[in-house]
Queue: 3 jobs
Job 1
Amino acid sequence: MNPAVQTTALAKRYGRKWALRNCTLSIPAGKVVGLVGPNGAGKSTLLQLAVGLLEPTSGAIRVLGGRPAEGPAQLQRVGFVAQDSPTYSNLSVQRHLRMGAYLNSNWDQDLAQSRVENLGLGPRQKAGSLSGGQRAQLALALAIAKRPELLLLDEPVASLDPLARREFLQTLMEVVAVHGVSVVLSSHLVADLERVCDYLVILVASQVQLAGEVSDLLSSHHRISGPRRDPRRMPLQQEVIEESHTDKQSTFLIRTDEPVLDPAWSVMRVTLEDLVLAYMTRGRDIGRRQVPQLEMVS
Amino acid sequence: MIRFSWVQFRLQAAVAGGALLIIAVAFALTGPNLVHLYSTIVASCTAHGNCSTATDAFLAHDRLLQDFGNLVIALPAIVGIFWGAPLVARELETGTYRLVWAQGVTRSRWLAARLGLVALASVAVAGLLSLMVTWWSSPIDRVNMNQFTSVFDQRGIVPIGYTVFAFAMGVAAGLLIRRTLPAMATTLVGYVAVRVLVTFFVRPHLIAPVRTTSALHMSSGMSYIESNNGPLGVIGAKPGAWVFSDRIVNAAGHSVTGDFLSRGACLQSRGSAACLGKLREVLVYQPASRYWAFQWYEMAIFIGLAVVLGGLCFWWIRRRIS
């Protein structure tokens, strides 16, 4: 199976600012992938490159093995919900569904209709009068009803209130369960990702800091604390991601495939949020060391 | 894609259709009366020879409706500003391009459908309006006999060329500038600039003018122009023609000045054979028969410019935008 998204030395520049630079990654298909990173990491740029709204400045990107937006067939295979889920404010919900039917050859009108009815949206309601959550749901319904193989969602819940956020993610989970579509979802809200994602990619300053199955990541990382110790004296197979020290005590977040046997340590499970924060911090520090003048745009 | 283009365009189409309908009704109600007035006031006066009072009286009718000619001038700018400029710019400005370009239709096809539909509508609107104005004004134009000068760009087929050009200009400006309001302003300025350029620097050279030298022969409807002892000319020599220059020259070929008339034989009897003697009239003009050739040429120029701008839009949306 082709990866959902594969990039090689991908770069995108706006004027003099690099939004994405030397980004090489591979996001597997058949999963719900969370793409997480701080603002300006290049998540949104990456997704827009993947859907063909942007052209790379240099480097290459393949989506499901094809070039983004190369033709109607490729466009058909990828569903996209852009940041803030833009819709035509002067067109009704019904007209939006009509648009989907006109512009997509695999359009599933029944699916779109039932989604909109489930949301309680009146078909004659103008998109401009919808709440942020309803608009996001409408955009998701449009993206799903074209029956894509891959669904790309750019910060779909960032601007929603907690309730709307939960409903949106619930809808998404239903869709994944029923249609088996691959999903790549960018967000900086780790709690939301934890609920829906089974694969995680942490992107900081265009570089992948960590990628893997959520369950593997959680089982291979530990927070350990014990008497103060120099991180350089840690065992080789225990990679230190994060460290903090008091006078007498050291706490490390380590990555290891082997159990931690040293009785001096008390071992705790890590949460996904701990993990993401630790890698984001590390990525930021590395980024600062390497390219101190690096400018980030969101 | 055409069907969705129609969904997005139908409101603007309805407004244009409504406006055309109102104008059509106004013209249908007053047009026949104008023809009637022409046949009673103007056609009969030519028998008596002096028509100036009759034509003045005739031209005083329906002044307000005569101003619809100006609407034909304004239409291209209106279409360029309100149909052309927002076509892509609004999508870019409101972010909806991220919705529509992610559907199963390529950007080029999307643009082709949107551009094609509204361009056709522009042709239809401009053609219909020009047809109505040309028909309604035909009695007035027959009296004025100024088809080449004051109303050339308000009649016939050139308004179609102007409108399609202004539309393409609006779309291109919107696509390049990516914001509706600045694109509208650019469209207006650009359209007016190109029109002025073509009117004053291109149109006179489309066909080489006819140059004739003939014995001076004054007939009714003609008169001298004499300005401050400057060169003497004739007006009204070629009805309906576009006269570039019309000078009176003597046997040596030099221009004759106004004070010639106050000397010798001319002092007593202006216009007499003795006075005019061996004077000749040098005319440089475009004959009235070339009117439609000029109409076709000028329309073709603007359609050609519109095609170039359209090509630029396709190139830009595929290669440059992003």
Job 2
Amino acid sequence: MPIQIVKTEITGKVWKIEAVPGAALSEDQPILILESMKMEIPVPAPLDCTVVEILVAEGDSVTEGDPVARIEI
Amino acid sequence: MPFDKDLAEFDRRKALALAMGSPKRLAERKAAGILNARERVAKLLDAESFHEAGLFASSIRPEMRDKSPSDGMICGFGKIGGRLVGVNSADFTVLGSSSAEVHGKKQGHVRALATKNGFPIVNLMECAGGRIPDIMGAGGIGMSGERAVYRNPRTVPWISAVLGLTYGGGAFTCINSDFVVMRKGAVLAVSSQMVTSVAIGEEEDPQALGGWRHHSELTGLIDALAETDEEAIEACQKFLSYMPDHAGALPPCAPVPAGSGEGAAKLLDLVPESRAKVYDVRSVMKAVFDKDSVFPLKERFAKVAVTALARLGGRVVGVVASNPMFKGGALDPDACDKIASFIVLCDSYNIPLIFLADTPGFLVGAESEKKRLPAKIMTFMSALEQATVPKIALVLRKSYGQAYLNMGGGKADVTASWFSGDISFMDPAVAVNVVFAVKQDQDPERFASLVKQVSEGTTAYELAAPFLAHSVIDPRETRAYLTAMLEILARRPSGALSERRLANWPHGF
């Protein structure tokens, strides 16, 4: 199955990691949540997938386009 | 029997044409679960309703006549649920349904009759591109310029399905359509990888060149996705159910399904009170509009905005909603394109527009500016201001800055807000940073006091006092309120028909 890198679409701080490696997610289910623009904004799964690796830690700052997770689709 | 010889010849020719391309190719398609051009027409239309035009047409080149049954395009007229439509169904087993003289002329005939007589067109497309050698040389390309039609003035709905490799003219027909559904595995691109590998030395997987993920996520050039041919054809039928036959008519009403509006009572639970929390606006739409009537377009592209056809009390409406679930609902350049294109569609086919706003504003920053955000915002606004169908704007929670105006605030026929509305030039917390130069971590007490002070001027009631909001409503009243406003706005003496100022807006954005 192909591996895909999930990138953030906004700049912010990693507030909470929601999914662990091995977790099966549906499209649009949150992988992690960023704190940005005074909101808690999810980084969602782009497709139905399995999480392979989370590439950031809670508290990390990320900018738009940064890789945050590897998923298998 | 009289005419024995003629009847035999007629039957022989008919059988040859109906047999389409090579049996091997037809068998390969069948094995892969892909319908052929005639099976697709049968699936699309009511039984026994198809009247074919051009069964005996063939290539204009004498030496190719026997190798080009129907010249690779099955054309005609039929009915979908009793409604008349024109059909062009590409037969890839005949010369790759490549674009050529007679092949184009047949599609033009269907377009001309549909336009003149006011009924929609469905294109079931595959296309290898321009036919070689027909299109080669100065004469070939020159002739194609005289034949091809590249303008869709939105007189009648054009509905297209991308059902295989679709390049060149076939791709352009789809792009110029009002609705495009793509079957997974199909490709929509200007040129195949055979051309790109030679012309620019680029070896690209066709899916990366123009596959379903490319178009549903990155380009937004398709409106819907399907797993199979059958599903794609059903999507065409579904889109048609929201469309009028032509731009001079209103879309058809439908009976209101039992259970519609039952979710309205849950609206207070669906939307978090804290504006720091997000939610999926699609759940709000599902609760407000007629049961199972919400039909999203370009759902996987620019997810910060939802654009969907739906029904309210049986009437067709177009809904534009910012979705806090993605990027907090901050509208980005792609969302502007998506919304502008949707406004054009709805305005051209007499579909009232409803805007649901919960947005922190436009997504500002270097990346957005590189993607021409100021121009995108104004393109969106220009479409909104020129649209003459009934327009209703409703603020759900926050709606800040220029995005408030773009989401219809003050621009629609009616502007309203839920009691949870929070309307301002910018987020109160950001405003305290910018206006008073006070940061939360430096002086939390003063920061909190200033946020409270700024927030007092941003409530729905502050919008209602100078009558900038015509109503402030309980979220649970949304369905009833929108239905009542729609009834008022649809009474206009023009019969609620649009002035169609946007009808010539280009389809590709």
Job 3
Amino acid sequence: MYLRNTWYALARRDEVGEALTPYQVLGERLVAYRKADGTAVALEDACPHRKLPLSMGTRQGDHIMCGYHGLTFDGAGTCVAAPTQSKIPTAARVKSYPTADKWGLVWVWMGDPAQADTSKLIAIENATTPGWGISNGDSMVCGCNYLYLVDNLLDPSHVAWVHVTSFAAPGTEDTPLQIATPPEGVVVSRWMLDRDPPPFYAPLLKFKGKCDRLQHYEVRYPSLGINKSIFTPAGTGGPGKPLHEQAYMMVSFHFLTPVDDKTTRYFWLQNRNTDAANAGLTEQIAAGARRAFEEDRVILEAVHAGMANKTTPNLDLALDGGALRFRRGLSALIDRETSPS
Amino acid sequence: MTRTRALTESTTPVRKATVTFAFSKKTFEWDDAFASLLDFAEDKGLKPDFSCRSGICRTCECEVLSGSLTYVTEPLDMPEEGMALICCSKPDGDVILNI
């Protein structure tokens, strides 16, 4: 079961173009392409006759023609031609999904089309703030359920063991975590004071020496991660303190799209408060992020397999408090969506 | 009759209470310096099962034979009537736990 009345990232913007491209989201097969006016179309990837994937058909202008008997549909899924019939069957319809272009991605609304609302797309607070740089982002496919990725994005502790050469630093193993449960998701956070900066961030900081570091791990329902890192000169950071002028802030956005219950498409991008125009640095950060997320992928794929095939019980640790609360909250939202009102 | 309730205030009055561990056949005067009944039990030489120590895994769940508790950390799920998660709770008064 998935939350449906929400936007999921379907593809990176440049993936969707002239070609009829097949995707799978929440276990459903979709075909996507762009109309001549640039609008992205997402349709069920199946002709209503014998369910041949429409992605095996051909484009006829903005329309899509099935490769079996020529049934042709417009971008809204309405049949516009049925060459073998004297009249177009009224039942010849393909399910269509609302789409939106935002943050370099094509988003798809998997629920009731009447409720699709682009104002509900995630906001990126500092996307256009002067002085802030933003990366184009990237994506990968992970062979695990999306909730294991959510767990990971609510777990600041794993960096001490999984990201040894990037995000790990003294304090990441054992500093206690604060858990907050706002209506839109869960936040797990902690300040680590007077510590050496981790290897990934050390060269990016505008000050030398020890730092106060915030790890703010937030996931909004159903699967939008906002990972905020703040580094300030030691002695200037901490809960509730105003941001120091030399503070370095990196906000990493993670968009998890369930392909099916054991596969996830993982999209991300980074937004930082320094070196806005430094393309080389943007590239360096992007490459570092990809390396780190590959480390997560290896672990989480093996975790999925381990949990799916366990022969003895597993246990929960204190660090799972945020993730388990998130799973409860999401289940409640899904129940509310699926129970008749 | 046992009751449980979530903590609503961050400061609670120092509790005067006796804690009886019925299975172990031991009774002690509660010391509110302990963060939880689990910490207290361990200090008294008991070895209850535990895992998360934060109210989510239920490994430490035990029977409350009498008395009531306050949860200093809200558990992921409140235990059923008559049961307690001792890793994240303190006694309201005299309690008897079946450990």
